[in-house]
Amino acid sequence: MDDLRMKVGNVEIVALSDMNISYPMPLEELWSEVPSEDWGPFRERYPDTFDGGRMRLEIGCYLVRSQGRTILIDTGYGPGPIEHVGGLRGRLMADLAQWNVDPQQVDTVFLSHLHADHIGWNMVDDGGRMVPTFPNARYVAHKDDLAHFREPHVKAAGRFPYLEWYVEPLVDLGLFDAITGDLDLTGEVKAVHTPGHTPGHMSVVIASGSQRAIIEGDVLVHPAQVTEEGWNSHFDADHELSTKTRSKLLNQVEADGAAVIACHFPKPGFGHVVRYEGKRYWQVGVQSVER
């Protein structure tokens, strides 16, 4: 399982998978601003990210160990069955068990944002009663996302009441921290506000010694966006801001020589940005994380 684990200085990062799906929305709807023919070069370069006329999507999460802390970043779709992706059931808990991680060992659950595919294992059924899956953890997300997903029109657009199931109970129990800006999770791991995909979207910057990496959340949903920064999906709430954030993140990644960790790219999502004929591309594998 070494290919599912990487070190950034003293920080350990483990790639976990909740599920891998063929997203049911056709490409022309999911990426309505992108002409179908423009996908051609990316179909050749990233064949594992397509399933005919649909996008193949990893629902990934990450376990981060730093300075004695055990941090879980995102919790996938959850136990399911998730009807709109064919009734699939999440396997995050089985993945954690393979790494000998007990849910009680997790002290922070950091949620990059509050879309349904990032919060589903927040709660679990315990004999007919919903309880926090990670009982000793604080659950952390940006306050702007909590406000956004509480809006009636946003709730109405959802396929099921996931906020009421997986977030509001944590708020009621006093286990949810709605933060207002960047936050040091440890001295080596920092959550930073990267809005656009959602108003409160956040990424996680890891800096240990001379090494750097960023777990980017949904700033990048498909590797093509490394090259085509202006491509926005149906789920990007603010296309202009999303593009600006994406460009800023990619510029910083290049300046720092940082690894890029992407939860929706093929597992494990470890990679880096390279230049070819003046354009940026995603490349699998960690070439360098030296600043």
Molecular structure report:
The structure is a single chain. β7 and β8 (129-132) form a beta hairpin. It contains 9 helices and 17 strands. It is globular. The protein is an alpha+beta fold and 291 residues long. The longest helix is centred in the last third of the chain and has 18 residues, at 239-256.
The total count of strands amounts to 17
Shape: globular
Q: Specify the helix fraction band.
A: 10-25%
**Proportion of β residues?**
25-35%
Q: Would you identify the regions where 5 or more consecutive residues have pLDDT less than 50?
A: none
What is the helix tally?
A: 9
H-E string: EEHHEEEHEEEEHHHHEEEEEHHEEE
Overall structural class, as computed from helix and strand content, comes to alpha+beta
Note the main sheet. Answer: 8 strands, mixed
Rg over CA atoms:
18 Å
Beginning-to-end CA distance, first to last residue? 27 Å
Q: What is the averaged pLDDT score?
A: 95
Keywords:
22% helix, 8-stranded mixed β-sheet, alpha+beta, single chain, 7-stranded mixed β-sheet, 291 residues, globular
State the gist of this model.
The protein has 291 residues and is an alpha+beta fold. It has helices spanning 27-30, 40-45, 92-98, 143-149, 152-157, 162-166, 168-173, 224-227, 239-256; strands at residues 5-8, 11-22, 50-51, 54-66, 69-73, 108-110, 123-126, 129-132, 138-142, 176-179, 183-184, 189-193, 202-208, 211-215, 259-261, 270-276, 279-284.
